[in-house]
Amino acid sequence: MKIVIAPDSFKGSLTAREAAQSIESGILRVLPEAECVSIPMADGGEGTVQSLVDATGGRIMRVLVTDPLGHPTNAEYGILGDGRTAVIEMAAASGIQYIDETTRNPLIATTYGTGELIKDALEQGVSDIIVGLGGSATNDGGAGMAQALGVRLLDDNGAPLPFGGAALAELSEVDVSGLDPRLADVRIRLASDVTNPLTGVRGASAVFGPQKGATPDMVERLDDALAHYAAVIRKQLGREVETVPGAGAAGGLGAGFLAFTEASMRSGVDLVIEATGLAGLAAGADYCFTGEGGIDFQTQYGKTPMGVARAVKQASPDCTVVALAGSIGEGIDQLYDLGIDAIFGIMPGVSTMRDAVDHAADNLARTAENVARLLARNL
Question: Could you tell me the pTM of the whole model?
Answer without folding.
Answer: 0.89
